[in-house]
Amino acid sequence: MNQINKKKNRVLEYVSEMLNSLIPVIKSKYLYFGILAIIAGADKKKNRVLEYVSEMLNSLIPVIKSKYLYFGILAIIAGAALNFASETYLHNYMSEGKTLPMLSDLILDHLPFYNVSLIYDIFCLVPIFLVLVYFVHKKDYNRIPLFMLMTGIFYIVRGIFIVLTPFGNPPMFNGSDPLFHGFSNFELGVYPSGHVGNVFLMFLLVKDKSYKWLILICLIIVVGALFLARGHYSIDILSGLFFSYAIRSFGEKHLSMFDLGNIREPDRLAVPV
Fold first, then answer.
1. If we measure between CA atoms, which residue out of 61, 250, 244, 254 comes closest to residue 141?
2. Exposed/middle/buried for 25, CB within 10 Å: 0-12, 13-18, 19+?
3. What is the pLDDT of residues 136-149, one digit of tens each?
4. What is the mean pLDDT of the chain?
5. Once rounded to an integer, what is the mean pLDDT over residues 68-87?
6. How far is CA 79 from the centre of its chain?
7. Among residues of the chain, what percentage have pLDDT more than 90?
């Protein structure tokens, strides 16, 4: 009992000593100056964030109001729908007992097989995230409609070609990783490669060199993983590059109005003073 009382007294003495030490601090005006400085600093940071968000929204308003944004959205929807319809057609074609030709490939025939499909699927998605960061970081909102249109056109073209040239998947292809099965139920249609074409298209459209290098690294990883996992024939991969380059070149020459930075407001009539 005495030991408990002694411990209790020690605690009380410690608390009393601490409070006595804090009293001069609490009485000091400098403590409150410090508190006010912290509050003011927090308010400044809050104001900066609000200013940045407000500036971003103001920059996005002309994009949202532009008809070209919605044409770009429609192009992406059309491309996704056409690819799904084409794969469904090929699935039904094979369900009738018919087969798609499996080709010999000079590069694949001399490479070892590794089931790294998860790698090319992940690094195909990373550039999408990088492009979103690029838009916000570099405030390049005016090019959003162009990005969407070019992506949509690529997948529309791909949706047509995978039916025109219906190759079977390369030998030893085991399908995508279970994590990504939901993205394509049938995994049919290989020419051209959507993985390579989409990543390379983003590389071509992004203007900043730092982002270009990051996307280029992703592209190299995707290509290497596709070869090792037998995800595509070499002709699919090379065609993905050529298709994307051709679509980008065509778009920047004939569809430059989708880059809203190229649209100039009509000159206002000068009012004589």
1. 61
2. exposed
3. 888 888 888 989 99
4. 79
5. 90
6. 17
7. 23
- Closest Cα to residue 150, out of 68, 78, 248? 248
Query: Which pTM does this prediction carry?
Result: 0.73
25: its two tokens: 């601090």
Is the distance from CB of 203 to CB of 106 less than 8 angstroms?
no
Rounded Cα distance between 190 and 236, Å, is 6
- Pull the structure tokens for residue 235: 């002709």
- Alpha carbons within 13 angstroms on the beta-carbon side of residue 224 total 8
d(Cα 131, Cα 155) in Å, to the nearest integer? 18
**What tokens appear for 108 in the block?**
């694949």
- Give the relative orientation of helices 209-229 and 117-138 as an angle to the nearest 10 degrees: 170
Cβ atoms of residues 127 and 196 within 8 Å: no
Delimit the domains of the chain by residue range: 2-47, 66-262
- Distance, in Å, from the CA atom of 217 to the CA atom of 224, rounded to the nearest integer, reads 11
> What pLDDT, on a 0 to 100 scale, did the predictor assign at position 271?
42
Is the Cβ–Cβ distance between 211 and 140 less than 8 Å?
Answer: no
Higher model confidence: residue 10 or residue 245? Answer: 245
